[in-house]
Amino acid sequence: xxxxxxxxxxxxxxxxxxxxxxxxxxxxxxPNSEMESVEHNxxxxxxxxxxxxxxxxTGPLLTVTGVERVFQVAGNPLHVLxxxxxxxxxxxxxMLRGRSGSGKTTLLNLIGGLDQPTKGEIWFDGQPFHxxxxxxxxxxxxxxxxxxxxxxxxxPMLSAYENxxxxxxxxxxxxxxxxxRVTEVLDMVGLGKRMHHRPFELSGGEQQxxxxxxxxxxxxKLLLADEPTAELDSQMSAQIMxxxxxxxxxxxxxxxxxxxxxxxxxxxxxxxxxxxxxFG
Length: 280
Ligand SMILES: Nc1ncnc2c1ncn2[C@@H]1O[C@H](COP(=O)(O)OP(=O)(O)O)[C@@H](O)[C@H]1O
Ligand SMILES: [Mg+2]
Prior knowledge:
This protein has helices spanning 2-9, 14-29, 104-111, 134-144, 160-170, 178-188, 204-216, 234-250; strands at residues 62-73, 76-88, 93-97, 119-124, 127-128, 145-149, 222-226, 254-259, 270-275, 278-279. The protein is of the alpha/beta class. The protein has a single domain, classed as P-loop containing nucleotide triphosphate hydrolases (Rossmann fold), CATH 3.40.50. The strands form 2 sheets. The chain has a 6-stranded mixed sheet, sandwiched between helices. Strand 9 and strand 10 form a beta hairpin. The longest helix is centred in the C-terminal third of the chain and has 17 residues, at 234-250. It binds adenosine-5'-diphosphate and magnesium ion. Magnesium ion binds next to helix 3.
């Protein structure tokens, strides 16, 4: 099956996918499980997908200072990031550009709290990511971040609707809020009429739009997208970028994405060029 091959090829795509698979599997095995009793997130706060009345936070959403990442490869150090400085302002579309192997995914993983820097600081929304315990970082990531990957990473047996619903379940959003929010985000990406289709019944561009709906459903502050248009033709890529621009306004989300497609750079608020482990 093409889908299984695709999923396998993105097996590095974070534990979120593995977590979702086990959540989806447990749903099948125990249809009447106690999911709705789990209404609190890891920090003990009630998860919230309704629009917030709180005043908007100010200052940069993300600050990266002097970040280095060294991997040990066959006993030798491989310096992939050699001192990265960046500041990402709220509600901007920021792109990381660079050739394959230049360290874009490595940096995105650090920003997303999936990995920790060898040296340097990463502040996300006022919190020192580089100092937080794994559990605290995971809690912040689940509540405040969304992820999109090159190969869509949808559950092949679930409809578009069920895929988005699964992400609300993972974010511990109360069950009573699911229907309204799932419908809302699928409408937002232009798939209101295709909600009950499964991934194999959708085009690549439509699947990526389901993935976007899924990644923003729990109202993250930051959306991280690793080459989200790499498998799409130019027309579908343009649609994805239009959706990104729309949700920055309507969802007030900040987007940081990697790309090596020069044609989409012009819609970015800021482009960081990665070369030899530094920004050029
Ligand atoms: N976990 C890891 N262990 C060892 N080397 C790694 C690891 N992750 C990435 N690398 C290496 O770091 C370099 C940058 O990789 P990556 O961040 O994936 O680049 P890009 O996303 O720009 O293509 C590559 O040489 C890659 O082999
Ligand atoms: Mg990469």
